[in-house]
Amino acid sequence: MKILITGTTGYIAKRLALQLLDQKHELVCCVRDLNRIPDALEEAPNCSFIKVDFLKPENAEIPNDINAAYYLIHSMATSSQNFESLEEQCASNFKALVAKTQCQQVLYLSGIVNADTLSKHLKSRLLVEDTLKSEYYSLTTFRAGIIVGSGSASFEIIRDIVEKLPFMITPKWLNTKTQPLAIRDVLSFLSGALGKKELYNNAYDIFGPEILTYKEMLLQFAEVRDLKRYILTLPVLTPKLSSYWLYFVTSTSFKLAAALVDSMKVEVIGKPSAINDIIGITPIDYKTAVDLAFQKTEQNAVISSWKDAVSSGRFKDQLSKYIELPQYGCFTDTRQRPVTNEALTLEKIWSIGGKNGWYSFNKLWKIRGYLDKLFGGVGLRRGRTHDTDLEAGDPLDFWRVLLADKNEKRLLLFAEMRLPGEAWLEFKIEKDQLFQRAVFRPKGVWGRLYWYSVLPFHAFIFRGMINALVKP
């Protein structure tokens, strides 16, 4: 089959694309920015890429001969106040483009909606589902609750909470019931439904075998990790306080924390159907899903993470707009050192941040991360998706990777921390020399005051970092 994939750089779509390629399908992957093609897909046979922004589809060209399409565009982390209307517009534009092709089936991953009072994001997903219905193709919708897998938002947030807090005073929504589903089962449902006409124009709830409260999920997670944890739930924590609690304890952004709290107040129990038998799936239990997720994490084999999404940080535009470093109205800190072992230096550059730290004055980097978190920034807790691999779009502590090209021997980062301006950090090897350049484009007087206030620290932080990178 020739299949159109949307949301290619997202958590679900990146994994699904690899699975579909293993099943010998031909893929056409939609990306907003051609500089953000995942490395795992870029060289894959039977996989091509087209630039499409479904909010601005004027120049989009969808191949006419596609047989099926996956609509996997959604962001709980968006900062837009009118995200519901934007998502409706996005789905409407997608439908109009696909209706012009030979596509017979569209598959959409939505959320379980079985309550009278829905969160904003569940309302949005239901609205998108209604928008996608068309007389030109058949729609198959899968509705899932909590998805558990390496790199998933729920897995990472629960891991942060469980591993950091032996005793927890938590909001009352921890008693809300849900049915967690393993990511591998989600992918099996999505891929297994391709071309099955009995699933056309139908919606199915997909869920794991257990009904658990969020409190039980935390405690079972602790059991898998062989940790003893104690939880006290209090009814006095308001949704806003609960959002701050999640924000400061975990690596999530405040936007996502608020969206999660809004969703977690609603019970998510799936409606039984024959879908497991039709697809031939027996979903695994929660503890097994957690254990498998940790195996992937420990093997450094995490394919995708919720943090990969640009909307998980403060980035607003396509990465390609920031790859050219500005020349005017900027402050720069440029350093240069001879490289004696190029392979080792490149390895250090590609391993920077996360667990490995920044090679120099890590305590000061951590303090900067705490301050950023305190003022509503992303902080250092996001870490990085892989310990040694980087690609454009990856999160890297409070930076975003703009370009990671080992052939060009260049790594370029853009700051997502709270700043009165814009900042870049570049590492590049040329003619046996390592060039390390920090560029800051200030915004107004406060930006200039900020640069001069941190200038004394740059003298030893940046000097120590470049010295460590070239050290044999």
TrEMBL record:
InterPro entries: DUF2867, Epimerase_deHydtase, NAD(P)-bd_dom_sf. Pfam families: DUF2867, Epimerase. Residues 3-95 form the NAD-dependent epimerase/dehydratase domain. Signal peptide: none annotated. This is SDR family oxidoreductase.
